[in-house]
Amino acid sequence: MKRKKQRKHSDPAKQFRDKQQKVLAMGIGVVGLIVLVWWAADSFLGDDTVDVTVPELSRVASAGKTAFDANCAQCHGDNAAGSESGPPLVHDIYNPGHHGDAAFYAAAKRGVRQHHWSYGNMPAQPQLSDEEMAAIIRYVRELQVANGITYKPHNM
Ligand code: HEC
Fold this sequence. Notes:
Cytochrome Bc1 Complex, Chain D, domain 2, about 0% strand
């Protein structure tokens, strides 16, 4: 028994394995820390995207979704949840009392100067007809309602 124990302690292969395990554990710890810091930074700094519940859409809103996906989603994200290039439109700031439908038509016609966020300016989207815009607005409003964003009087 005694001899065996001694041998175990002085076994260089085992010592090497122990060391390897320690290094591995440390490595996992460091990677874990990096992931944690990255995740925390991402959720406290830059990321404004929201979780959007998609309701059953009306016919007009479905047409609006198609136009939205082709013209707006690259910045405002799938389901208007936001992306790295633009804010979510399913957001209290864009409730109909603060940004009525006219603000949407104006955004498409003239673009938007950066003022609420820090994504830069929104370029005009003149390729969209008023009819397509009406469908897009309907789509965004149906998403808003399904996510608890309803008319609030604007008092800012
Ligand atoms: C190239 C990126 C980009 C595209 C494409 C884009 N937007 Fe935007 N949009 C933005 C950014 C960025 C803002 C936020 C500006 C701010 O308030 O700082 C914005 C703001 C808006 C606003 C708020 C306007 C206001 O008065 O504050 C509306 C409404 C809007 N977008 C609708 C749309 C719709 C609808 C489409 C598609 C037809 C679209 N956007 C396409 C980037 C984009």
